[in-house]
Amino acid sequence: MLRVREALPVVSERRACAVLELARSSHRYESRRPPREARLLEKLLALHAAHPRYGYRRMTALLRRAGWTVNRKAVQRLWVLAGLQVLRKRCGKRRGRGAHSHLVAARPGEIWTLDFMHERTAEGRSLRLLGVLDEFTRECFAHVPDRRLTAEDVIDVLEGLVFRHGAPQYLRSDNGPEFVADAIQGWLAEAKIATLYIAPGCPWENGKMESFNGKCREEFLDWELLGSVEETAWLAERRRWHYNHERPHSALGYLTPLEFKAKWLAEHGRVAAGRMTEAHG
User: Fold this and answer.
1) Is 184 exposed, middle or buried (0-12, 13-18, 19+ CB in 10 A)?
2) Could you write out the DSSP letters of every residue in 186-217?
3) What is the Cα–Cα distance from 50 to 84, expressed in whole angstroms?
4) With CB atoms 3.0 to 4.6 Å apart as the test, which of 138, 146, 198, 244 could cross-link to 205 if both were Cys?
5) The pLDDT of residue 1
6) Are 220 and 239 spatial neighbours (Cβ–Cβ below 8 Å)?
7) What is the pLDDT of residues 103-132, one digit of tens each?
8) Alpha-carbon radius of gyration of the chain
9) pLDDT greater at residue 244 or residue 61
């Protein structure tokens, strides 16, 4: 025979709070997220969906650029609350890496660096992307895809960039066949551009370009299913515009390359501009 449990005595809220020495206002309190914080979290989630490889520091810069007056720690708190994270790839330890003394850019337009990236389109065909970067400002001048890129193609790209931006004093690259070809060596000599070759097997000597290639791989190529060369060119140009105009760079104080360049020129005034013009001439 089942035994019916005796009903527990009903205790009023006032009595229970008095016994526990708890204020009834605290017992009745329900956490409510301020409307501004809810909107901020919504914006943060939208930015994370658009840029899944960005961390909370770079998100803070994007929010401020969008007009939000927000503290980095507040963004970090919402970032943790929403369970957002950026998965980092583990890189193997580089052997034989040592200190290499090489020329470091001290102003915009002094050193350009370029390199190739290798990718495959959706049908499995090989694709190469030629990137050209200003080492001082990190501004990407060109990111050109094609099935194959010869020394003549590299010259065509560089001629167009020199026409628009002026010639750099140095050009840093590896010593691949595209750059040691007689054609490009003759063009560089005619344009009065000195070459800076990195040592074989030492990609870290071209660290600015290696960083650009890594970010391009993580934020662009790994997320796109590339079709034709024309489609890839459109996507690469869109990404280049975002990289120069919108993407905050931690090495530049979370400014974009164009913002950093404009700030540097404003601080150094006409003297720096005159030196750049003289060097390009």
Assistant:
1) buried
2) HHHHHTT-EEEEPPTT-GGGGHHHHHHHHHHH
3) 13
4) 198
5) 44
6) yes
7) 889 999 999 999 899 998 888 889 999 999
8) 28
9) 244
Starting at the edge strand that comes first in sequence, how are the strands of the sheet with 126-134 ordered? Answer: 140-146, 126-134, 111-120, 170-173, 194-197
d(CA 181, CA 189) in angstroms, rounded, equals 12
In angstroms, the CA 35 to CA 41 distance is 10
Q: Quick one: tokens of 259?
A: 């913002």
Give one DSSP letter per residue of the chain, joined into a string: -PPPPPPPPP--HHHHHHHHT--HHHHH------HHHHHHHHHHHHHHHH-TT--HHHHHHHHHHTT----HHHHHHHHHHTT---PPPPPPPPTT----------STTSEEEEEEEEEE-TTS-EEEEEEEEETTT--EEEEEEES---HHHHHHHHHHHHHHH---SEEEE---HHHHSHHHHHHHHHTT-EEEEPPTT-GGGGHHHHHHHHHHHHHTGGG----SHHHHHHHHHHHHHHHHHT--BGGGTSB-HHHHHHHHHHHHHHHHHHHHHHHH-
pLDDT (tens digit per residue) in 183-211: 788 888 899 999 888 877 777 778 889 88
Bridge partner residues of 132 (DSSP) = 114, 142
- pTM assigned to the model: 0.70
Question: Residues near 217 by Cβ (< 8 Å), separated by ≥ 6?
Answer: 117
Which residue, chain included where needed, has tokens 């090989």? 126
Residue given tokens 């709070």 in the structure block: 17
Q: Hunting for tokens 């660096």 — which residue is that?
A: 113
